[in-house]
Write a structure and sequence with these properties.
With 456 residues, this protein is mostly helical. The chain contains 14 helices and four strands. The protein has a two-stranded antiparallel sheet with strand order 1-2. The chain has a two-stranded antiparallel ribbon with strand order 3-4. The longest helix is centred in the middle third of the chain and has 57 residues. The termini are far apart.
Amino acid sequence: MRGRQREQHREQRGRERGRALPAAVGALCRALPPRARPAPDTLRRARFDRPQASLDFWRLLYVLLKQIHGSRWTESDAIDTQIRFVKSALWYHGYDRPQLHQLPPDGSVGSRELLLAFSWLLHRLGLLEQLLARNRVKTGDETSVCTCEDDLPNRQEGTTEAGPEGGLEGRVDVRYLQWLNGRLRFQWHSLHAQHQEQCKLLHKIHLFTSGSHMDQILGHFSVTETDLIRQPENYKQLLQLLESETMQLEAFLEWKQLEPVYWQWMETVLDNMAEEGNTWESQDAHAEKRRLPEVTSCCPWADKLTGQMDRLSRDLMALQDQLHQLVTQRKAAWWEKVAAREELQKEGFSATARKIQESVEVKLRGLAFIHAPKKNKMHGSCRLVLRNKHPASKTAFGQSQVSKEPVSAVSATEVIRELQMREASLQRELEQLREECRQRLDEIAEGLEGVICISP
């Protein structure tokens, strides 16, 4: 009796989940950006690995990943270009499932694999949250602030990107690199000058509209608000964007409530794939049994493997002995070289010691900066708000204005100070690398006969 009740309860929960699934999938689709919004049927067809949904899913992932990476894209991009970009971006983010990367470049099959990749992006990267933050309507003046430590070497470890020529093998003219460096510096200076001009104009707008805003925390208009005052007819376009964003946020809230239903549905997708995989493996194993002859109960490969392991162990011991001898010889040669230099350059020993001491002090300062108590690192966009040096000033209505700072407000002076400390640390590291390169070049120049090296 109880078993029957449990079975009925399970069937009832399954029916409720089946009714909630279309709502969850629909909310997910509506929460995506308008230009990358798939039909709910696309996800349902992908569950059964229908080829009709493959191209739609490739385009969906292409548009979403392009927006995440802040790259430009058009509807006319070739499908093979889209597929290559999607595979590269997924590999970059850590999705290395071989079944997806082995899909053909024409996009004819693999809709269920793409559904798995899409769900992985939802879970691992917080895809919806990133897209909502990147595509939100910005009515205020904002700037990007980042005081995080550079993790670029860790992220790029073990990854290489082929150049446009696909293998120059070191045949790059130094003059071409110098030209590229000069061009990069020129563009950087131009960008810096444009940014300074933008900051000056932004400051003028904030200063001239000070005291005009209804919000006392802001106190002034932004560029968008000032443009609406000058051209009121533009409010319709802004209103449409805000309404679209509001609908997208409402769909996101609905999705967060129904999200467990979607993941339960994805579990059934994985179960189906596992069952199909087991079926194929059993068929392959049965065919293999028919082809292979009968194997004896003993292990004929065990003796061979043991012999290989013994040989490998002996080779490792021999290599260890050779390495120990080599280290001993190198140490002896190094001490002889040091002793010879001390005899030949006694007068320059004090200068070398001073350089070493300065290098140690630089490293200690860097360590002190690294191991200092960490503050909350800032990363993302912040709204720019002009603050009067005098906290109590007269507003346009003759009332005393009390400056009420929001909880997360950060002074620009504090951000500049922290960035200057980071710049000083990077500058010390750069000088250290330059000194190492200079010493390396001096060592190379000593081995060149008949060549005169003139420092720039």
